[in-house]
Amino acid sequence: MALVLAAACSHAPGITGRAGRAEPTVRDEFYRNLAGLRATLEAARPDALVVVAAEHFANFFYDKMPSFAVGMSDSYEGPIEDEEWLAIPRTRVPGNAALSRRLITSMMSTWPMPRSGSSTTASWCRCTSSRRASTCPSFR
Amino acid sequence: MSLYAVQKVLYELNRDPQLQARYREDPASVLTGRDLTGEERGALLGQDIGLLYVLGVNGQILMHYAAFCGIEWNDYLEAMRNGVREHGPVRDGIYAMTTEV
User: Fold this and answer.
1) Chain centroid to CA A77: how far?
2) For A131, which of B15, B60, B68 is closest by C-beta distance?
3) What confidence category does residue A68 fall into, taking pLDDT thresholds of 50, 70 and 90?
4) Spatial separation of the C-alpha atoms in residues A15 and A13, rounded to whole Å
5) Host domain of residue A16
6) How far is A54 from chain B (nearest CA, A)?
7) Is residue A63 part of a domain?
8) Closest by Cα among A134, A130, A122, A112 to A60
9) Residue pair A91/A78 in contact by the 8 Å Cβ criterion
């Protein structure tokens, strides 16, 4: 599988939730660039998207806060935030659990694992109540 | 661990529609058995954003709770400012104020 595009984007909730408060010229330029990113993404015709995003207490609390987590589900539901506040209706998007498993397996076998004493602290956690991720490796 | 318990309630509320429904119906029942001080309990029952901010609740948790309470963004920001005016500097958490305001 080839990497056809890598891109980054701002993710502040005001982009959708409070767009009317931004300075119009700055806002319009931002949305123009966002539209350009969409066009570039569509032109790249990816088979799958690997989205890296912040967590913000959507799935994890202070008692179990992994450095990163990888979703492994056939679908993801979101946003977790108040729909009206974010101005994004809650929806379900397709996932690809098999691809996730391949990525996770590769990461687990090739990346240096953080260790505590003589035993690794990497563990698996199943996030059954999660809206965004179903199963994830947790590195602490 | 008290701030931890406050944030845990809010975290659960933010992500659980069933708990939100129970909170709307009978907020005290959601707090039963939690390790909370009287002040914390009062702030949670009164939806006191300013005091919750001063107690040290993380903004990534507090802003979603404010949205759940139907508090408009500018009012949310002002509630935090008023909280500091009324209750003094943020006492704990990552926003703890260690200098005069």
Assistant:
1) 12
2) B15
3) confident
4) 5
5) 9-46
6) 11
7) yes
8) A130
9) yes
pTM confidence score: 0.80
Residues A52 and A41 in one domain: no
DSSP reduced 3-state for A98? helix
8 Å CB contact of B15 and A80: yes
Per the CB < 8 A criterion, the answer to whether B44 and B7 are in contact is no
Residue A127: pLDDT band with limits 50, 70, 90: very low
End-to-end CA distance of chain B: 26
Residue A2 lies inside a defined structural domain of this protein: no
State yes or no: ipTM above 0.85: yes
Residue closest to A4 by CA, chosen among A33, A30, A42, A36: A42
Nearest to B64 among A61, A62, A81 (CB): A81
Which residue of A56, A62, A82 is in closest CB contact with B4?
A62
Look at residue A70 and give its three-state secondary structure.
coil
Put simply, the answer to whether B15 touches A85 (Cβ < 8 Å) is: no
User: Is the peptide bond between A79 and the residue preceding it cis, with omega within 30 degrees of 0?
Assistant: yes
pLDDT tens string B8-62? 999 999 989 999 999 999 999 999 999 999 999 999 999 999 999 999 999 999 9
On chain B, the residues whose CB falls within 8 A of the CB of A18 are 73
Quick check: B8 and A85 CB within 8 A?
Answer: no
Distance between CA atoms of residues B15 and A119, nearest Å: 34
| Count: domains in chain A | 2
Is the sign of the CA dihedral A50, A53, A57, A58 positive or negative? Answer: negative
